[in-house]
Amino acid sequence: YAQFYSRDEFCHYNMFNHHFFGGEASSAVLDAFLREHDGKKVMMVVDPPFGGLVKPLANSFSLISQTWRKLQNSGDSNVDMPMIWIFPYFFEPRILECLPLLIMLDYQVDYDNHPLYKHGKTGRRQSPVRLFTNIPPKHFVLPREEGYRFCFFCQRYVCSLNKHCNECNLCPSKDGRKWKHCTACRKCVKPSWRHCLPCGRCALPDHPCRHAEGKDGCFSCGSLEHKRRACPLKDTRRKN
Does pTM surpass 0.90? Predict the structure, then answer.
């Protein structure tokens, strides 16, 4: 990007440690960009590598939001900069742990140059990439022609298969499939999961079951003699 944009338009930046390679000059460019004037607004949109750690990314995004807040003249210190974080849905617990105000939308982000995450894929091949945002979900109108509908109870657009659960009082699906409610767990779970009485939770039918009370054992092979990190089959499964 540095080949096509001037120093006043582009900054070489490491989002994992909040480092500007251009030093104070680049920081000044960011400050000028974040300083809203003439009615113009700023929103941060990030599409980081999916293999990156959530915590350092969230820390960098928080620092940018703090800078934005200091440059505004509203005087409201509780306002956060609008942002959209593009990341897989299974990182939701980690993201909310770091930035609890973010909400995951149902919209499936597709990539034209990705072998799997392309528009039109169905079932388990659907893209797991979602939008995490602090903007109210009702402001995102998702296309009905792509299989989204508006949920009156949740006041947001969701995937057509994401049915509203009266027990949970939300549309629970995370992966685009229709989830089912488990009365024992008191929450909705994936359709392929079954409630396991020894484990006291829902899991896949062939999961390593905890047979001995008080002993978690290995989640990979089910042995009660070791944990997963010490499992002798761990490296073998990884090679296969």
Answer: no
